[in-house]
Amino acid sequence: MVTADTHPGESLSREHTYYVAGHRGMVGSALVRALKGAGCENILTAGSSEVDLRDQSAAVQFVADHRPDVMLIAAAKVGGIHANSTYPADFLYDNLMIASNLIEAARRNGVERVLFLGSSCIYPKFAEQPIRESSLLTGPLEATNEAYAIAKIAGLKLCEFYRRQHGCLYHSAMPCNLYGPGDNYHPENSHVIPALIRRFHEAKMEGAESVVMWGTGTPLREFLFADDLAEACLHLLTLKDPPSLVNVGAGTDVTIQHLAGLVAETVGYEGRIENDSSKPDGTPRKLMDSSLIHSLGWKPSTSLEDGLKTAYQDFLTHHADRVASVEQASG
After folding, report:
1. How crowded is residue 126: how many other Cβ atoms within 10 Å of its Cβ?
2. How far apart are CA 270 and CA 285, in angstroms?
3. Is position 179 annotated as part of the catalytic site?
4. 73, 185, 256, 282 - which has most CB atoms within 10 Å?
């Protein structure tokens, strides 16, 4: 049971070694920034060329060699509706292996604490809104990302059961839709915000009169800036008895149509926004109940408008030139 006693009144230990799995991704890089900002200098990272986390022996050996005190699992194969629908076997297998191998490697090598990061897609498609942690496994999943969701459910349940059976302090956080620096801007395999940023930027550069958006624009979605999630994770690591599963969300949602308008305004695109209703909308609404983590002392600090400005600046700095060069080569 989570009570006020879970607040230890102490900051994150700067003496510990923190292994951030998936440090090159949007969430992992935000975790590294947050740890450095908290004064933690012993941060362990490794790219896929150094260790293939889908290989159990390699994952176990890596953890055995480095012996981190804390493991934050942000490593995952991720993508939007198109990618999840097209490559479900890859999403299920890769994410099952990553979660299973790292959690077992942590147990075998005495890692004191593991924080596993999942996604709001673990919840049933038609869960009562806002979605509480207790909604898990109470109904069918959204079909377009079922494979990814099943892998994430397996990972959080591994943490829950390792904690119950072995006494390991392994727990999970389920964020809502994330965006921010380091996002994936692939034209087909990206999530909604980076996809819209790229699309509106290209339309602006081309002088296009209109941009076509998938779906009706009516679904409601909740978005959290990646650095806010990282701060939530660090906060959870200071709790002596954290909940096994906790939602991490912004607490408010917007329609995709409204979001598109905000992104267009941020990018400076002034053309029309048209809808292709033949494309899937996905879940009608996904707003998470984040009252538990709010009661434990954390709330987000970045507005959607400010976060979009930061995300677009990151796109301009790290991705815009690459996008333009690829399009010129293909043209």
Report:
1. 14
2. 28
3. no
4. 73
Find out whether 10 and 59 touch, Cβ atoms under 8 Å. Answer: no
CB contact at 8 A, 264 and 200: yes
Instruction: Render pLDDT for 235-258 as a digit per residue (tens, 0 to 9).
Output: 999 999 999 999 999 999 999 999
281 or 31, higher pLDDT:
31
One of 148, 162, 170, 185 is an active-site residue; which one? 148
Answer whether 70's CB lies under 8 Å from 21's CB.
no
pTM of the predicted model, to two decimals? 0.91
